[in-house]
Amino acid sequence: MKTRLSVKRFPDPRLVWGQDSLEIPRSVSRFKGRGFFRFWIAACLVLVGCVPSEAPFSSGELPIPPLLEGEKKGDTRLFSLELQVGTKSFLPGKETPTWGVNGPFLGPTIRASKGEKVEIHVKNSLPEETTIHWHGLHIPAVMDGGPHQTIPVGSVWKPSFVIQQRASLNWYHPHPHGKTGEHVYKGIAGFFLIEDQVSQTLDLPKAYGVDDIPIVLQDKNFDAEGRFKYISGHMEQMVGVKGRHLLVNGAIFPVFQASASLLRLRLLNGSSGRFYNLGFEGGQEFRLIATEGGLVETPVALKRLLLAPGERAEIVIDLRQEAGKRWLLKSFSSETLALLDRDDPKGGMHADALDSTDFPVMTFEVSTSKGRSFDLPSRLTTLSPPSDKKVDETRRFVLDIKGPMGSKQDFTINDASMDMGRIDFSVKRGSTEIWEIKNISDMPHPFHIHGISFWILDRQGKPVAPYERGWKDTVFVHVEETVRLIATFDLPSDPKIPYMYHCHILEHEDAGMMGQFTVID
Ligand code: C2O
Ligand code: CU
Ligand code: CU
C-alpha cells in the first residue's frame, strides 16, 4: 500500500526567477536600479502567487558549445575529449566547482557523418572513475559506454565505430553504475550530431551556432557558497532531483541574437528529473522537424512541446516577419502539472514550485533579418517504420516504485532492480520486437533503450500525435499508461556485453529502474 503525504506548496517567486530577486546586481538586472520597484513586484508575487512574464536576471548571451569536427586520420575521424574539473560562475559573484569536457562545464558538440569511421579518445582527468555513453548511437555494446565500460582515473578509453544511422540529434553523458545522476549534474554532457546525405541536401538551417542552435536544458540547485547541491535525499530520489535554477547551455535565462530568417533549435532535456512543456509567450507556432532519431516526414506545427529527461527534438522558428521583436521561450509547466501524479491534479509531492508555474527559459532577440529567406520543405523525408505484422518477439515491461513513501523504495522493471551481474534477456540479432511498457507507479517515467531507435506503435492502444511519429530512443510513459514500441535490433551480437534500458530520470536509473539485454546470433 502506498501512503501519500499532502504537502502544501506556494510558488516562491525567488524559485521562479531562478535567483533571489532582491540580490540582483544592477548591471545585469532588467529592472536596473529600481530596488524599490523590485521589492513591490516581489511582494506582489508573494501575495498573489503570480508569475512574471520576464525573469529579471540573465547571464547574457546564450553560450554555444564549441563544434568539434575532429581530425581526419586515414579513413577515420578522430575526436579527443578530456573529462576535467573546473570552476564556472553561474550566479553573480559566485564560483561553482564544476566538471566539464575540454573545458570547465559541459562539452563540445561532436559532429560526424553517416558512413564515417569515428574514433574517440576519452581521457578521464576527473578524481573518480566514470563512463561516457553515446546516447542515441547505434553501435556495438562494447563501445556504448554504459556502466560496464568504466574509464579509470587517469586513463584514456578509445572506442571506435562506424556511423551507420541516419542524421540525428544525439548526446553523450556519464553512465557509471549508481552515479549517473551525480556525474551529469556536475557538468559532463554534450551533443553528438550526425549528418547524412538527406540532412545535408535538404534546404534546412544548418550553419552551426548561426541558424542551427543546440540547446540543453538543465535545472540545478546551488548552496550558499554557489556550489552545486546535488542531494540524494530520499524525497529527491523518489521524484527525481529538481533545481530552482534553470541553466540553458550553462547560462541562466540567456539571450540569443537571431539574425537568421529561419532558426533551427536542437533541443535536449539534459535534466535529472524535470520535464518541460515548451512554448513561446505570445503563442507563436513553431514546427517540429525531427525527433531523437532524425527527421520526421513532414514538419509538424506546434505551440507546445513536452520534453522529458533524455528526450530531444528539433524545431524551426520562422522569424521572417519578426525583425526587432523578442520571442520568449517558456516552460508552460502549469498546463502539464496533472501529469506528475496519479491522484493529485496539482502534482502532489511530485511537483515543486516551478512545476506549478510557467517559467521563462530564454529569449530570442530578432535583429533585422540578414539571413537568406526560404521556406521549409513541406516534405522532409520518407520513413519506413518496422511493420507490426512481422514481429519476432513481444516483451512486457512493468515500471514500478515499490514500498511505502518515506522509507527506502525499490525502483523496478518487472519487479527487479538493476543488477550489474544479471542479463535480463537476449534479443536475436536482426529481429523485430514489440516492447510493451506499462507504468503502474504513481508518476511518469521516460523510458530509454540503448543501441537502437524505435517507433511508438501506440499509447493505450491509440495512435500517437504527429509530433511523436518519428524515430525515437526515449519515450515518456505516463501514469497508468501502456506504450508499445517497435524496433529492429540490427546490432552486432555480443553474448557477454549488454545494452541498457532504463528510466531516464537519472535518480530512478541510479536507484535501479534499469535492466540489461544482450544481442546474440
Ligand atoms: Cu542517456 Cu542509458 O542513457
Ligand atoms: Cu542511451
Ligand atoms: Cu522514473
Describe this structure as you would to a colleague:
The protein has 521 residues and is mostly beta strands. The protein is 8% helix and 37% strand. The chain is built from six helices and 33 strands. It has helices spanning 13-17, 35-48, 180-186, 197-201, 234-239, 506-511, and strands at residues 67-68, 71-73, 76-88, 96-101, 109-113, 117-124, 133-135, 156-157, 160-162, 168-173, 190-195, 212-220, 245-248, 251-252, 255-258, 262-269, 276-280, 286-291, 294-302, 305-307, 312-318, 326-332, 358-366, 393-402, 410-413, 425-428, 432-439, 445-449, 455-459, 474-477, 482-488, 494-503, 514-520. The strands form six sheets. It has a seven-stranded mixed sheet. Strands 2, 3, 4, 6, 8 and 9 form a six-stranded mixed sheet that branches. Mean pLDDT is 89; it is low at 1-55. The structure holds CU-O-CU linkage and copper (II) ion (CU) (2 copies). Residues 133, 135, 448, 450 line the site of one copper (II) ion.
Low-confidence stretches: 1-55
The largest sheet is: 7 strands, mixed
Class from secondary-structure proportions: mainly beta
Share of helical residues: under 10%
Number of helical segments with 4 or more residues: 6
The bound ligands are: CU-O-CU linkage, copper (II) ion
Shape annotation: globular
Rg over CA atoms: 22 Å
Cross-sheet strand order for the largest sheet: 14-13-12-16-21-18-19
Instruction: Give the distance, in angstroms, between the N- and C-terminal Cα atoms.
Output: 43 Å
Strand content: 35-45%
Oligomeric assembly: single chain
How many DSSP-defined strands? Answer: 33
User: What is the residue-averaged pLDDT?
Assistant: 89
